[in-house]
Design a protein that fits this description.
The chain has about 110 residues and is mainly α. It has one domain. The chain has 4 helices and no strands. Helix 1 runs antiparallel to helix 2, helix 1 packs antiparallel against helix 4 and helix 2 runs antiparallel to helix 3. The protein starts with a helix and ends in a 14-residue tail after the last helix.
């Protein structure tokens, strides 16, 4: 569950940065309208997947609603998802045993 959130956080953040570059090219230099459209559509679909995974992680971690909303919105702010993802991983890893196998009880 954490891995799929992390992957989608990075994918969404990278696509948003690419989209920002495309928007600069489109509106600043009047070029790349088709590429901008394709990237915006791809980012939209990937952001929806990110929303599902982030909400699932937040509900299973029992975060307050405000925190979940902030994490969901971080996919719309350039560079924010990179920082929020680090913070989420640091908070969730101890809850799942730090990725280490939990020893069996005798």
């Amino acid at each position: 569950m954490l891995t799929r959130y992390r992957v989608m956080a990075y994918v969404t953040a990278v696509m948003l940065l690419i989209l920002c570059g495309c928007m600069v090219a489109k509106y600043g230099f009047d070029t790349g309208e088709d590429v901008t459209f394709a990237v915006s559509q791809a980012h939209g679909v990937l952001y929806i997947i990110y929303l599902v995974f982030a909400f699932d992680l937040g509900s299973k971690a029992r975060w307050p609603f405000g925190k979940i909303v902030w994490i969901l919105l971080s996919g719309t702010i350039p560079l924010a998802a990179f920082f929020v993802e680090r913070k989420v991983v640091a908070e969730v890893k101890p809850l799942i045993g730090g990725g280490q196998p939990v020893p069996a009880k005798a």
